[in-house]
Amino acid sequence: MPTAAIIGASSNRNKFGNKAVRAFQQRGYTVFPVNPNEPEVEGLQTYRSILDVPGELNLVTVYVRPDVLLPLLPDIARKGCEEL
Fold it and tell me: Tens digit of pLDDT for each residue in 38-52?
């Protein structure tokens, strides 16, 4: 089963970070929501950092502002994935 980390996952169903979680689940991905401010999203445990996500990732998607993303890029690179 393919895996996807959703950085900026949200419990607010109107936000793209939530819509992405649901869309990737519907496509058969194992989804890992990443958001240090949310305890869970769509019933899934969230992770404070991409580095906390277990295992290897096929895909990382990002739903945060550029000023939030820039400091996260080194951690995303360190974690590695097939597609960003």
Answer: 999 999 999 999 999
